[in-house]
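Here is one chain, start to finish.
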Amino acid sequence: MSSSTYSIGKSGESSASTHLIKMGFKIIERNWRHRRKEIDIIAEYQDFIVFVEVKTRENNSFGNPEDFVSRKQQRHIIEAANEYITKKDINKEARFDIIAITNNFDHEEIVHIPDAFYPTL
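Its structure:
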């Protein structure tokens, strides 16, 4: 990953955190890791523990950022979330959201997708 890609990602995570706070979420963790799996943002909202994947792109020439959360990545997020819930003894319902951020020139567009994916049996 290039330093430019890294900085775009970090900037997106900061924007996503700000967005969530404005919407009434309480940020608990950022960049929480379990082995090689990472959850960008963990937050509380109402009666939910919310695991948020942030995707940031400079433009949407190749598609919308949210379209780049693969099934494999979803499985990794779910596995890490299960570990987090177990380690922290969380007794809330889990939810998996995606925040897609597109930086078109000087305009930042944020799309928040609640319940973007679900754990499968």
